[in-house]
Specification:
Chains A, B: It comes from Amycolatopsis ultiminotia. Chains A, B: InterPro entries: ArsR-like_HTH, HTH_ArsR_DNA-bd_dom, WH-like_DNA-bd_sf, WH_DNA-bd_sf. Two copies of one chain form a homodimer. Chain A is α+β, with helices and mostly antiparallel strands. In chain A, about 50% of the residues lie in helices and about 15% in strands. Chain A contains five helices and four strands, in the order E-H-H-E-H-E-E-H-H. Chain A has helices spanning about 15-25, 25-35, 55-65, 85-90, 95-105, and strands at about 5, 45, 70-75, 80-85. A four-stranded antiparallel sheet of chain A has the order 1-3-4-2. In chain A, strand 3 (about 70-75) and strand 4 (about 80-85) form a beta hairpin. In chain A, helix 1 runs antiparallel to helix 3 (about 55-65) and helix 2 (about 25-35) crosses helix 5 (about 95-105). Chains A and B meet through helix 1 and helix 5 of A and helix 1 and helix 5 of B. Chain A binds a DNA duplex (30 and 30 nucleotides) through helix 3.
Chain lengths: ~110, ~110
DNA sequence: GTCTAGGTACGATTGATTTCGTACTCGAGT
DNA sequence: ACTCGAGTACGAAATCAATCGTACCTAGAC
């Protein structure tokens, strides 16, 4: 029941190159802009992002985000939770999440 | 003698995806971190960056940076100048250059 | 135990990106 | 005019990244 947290790099091991390569992909960036815009930092399901790609490819993208140190993945066995590593990212790359949050406002249709 | 400025996108046309893809490459990012760290924003020669790649490949990388809107390229015919579009980048993506500048401090050997 | 929904492992394919070889252009200097 | 240094154009090779098909695993519901 208590999911196991899949490992990612420590705060001090975060590398800008890896992070920027992770954010270069449109799908991964759309995930990150949503996470950055949600200030509650609540855990989210993997398929709450409505990505127009197969589940195998989603697995790949979430792994890239985790290995870049941007998110935590919590493995429950038959499902998975995603959470933004906001404090870590903010401390290592201040201003980065603000850029993504601004992009989310631009990319979200006004309602 | 007065070089012609090669065209890049207007400020409002800068796209985060294009910018992040441009910054994902190590060589292009090393150029950008150097430019971001130099607060005088002086024009620089193309080969003042000591990139360990052929000149054809350098041409390619500088073009990517220009088309992303990050730099201006001034063509003098037999040589070329590079200048950071600091105000444009700062106004469209505030905080981005600060991230690159911080990376320059980390990546520069202490002397 | 069986079934099902969500996720992963592995491999193959496809597409994009980086890189460079060859040939060419341009301007400065002699 | 000739040469030289710096850069570009074009195309090919090589490398890397995104995508998916098939098969498999896991926890929960029945």
């Amino acid at each position: 029941m208590a999911g196991t947290n899949l490992v990612g790099p420590e705060v001090d091991a975060l590398e800008l190159g890896v992070v920027l390569r992770a954010l270069a992909d449109e799908h991964r960036r759309s995930v990150m802009t949503e996470l950055a815009a949600d200030r509650t930092d609540s855990e989210r399901g993997c398929n709450s992002f409505a990505l127009p790609i197969s589940k195998q490819t989603q697995t790949h993208h979430f792994r890239v985000l985790r290995e870049a140190g941007l998110i935590d993945e919590i493995d429950y066995g038959n499902r998975k939770g995603i959470r933004l590593r906001r404090t870590d990212v903010d401390s290592r790359f201040p201003g980065l999440l603000a850029l993504l949050e601004a992009e989310h406002r631009d990319g979200t249709a006004p309602h």
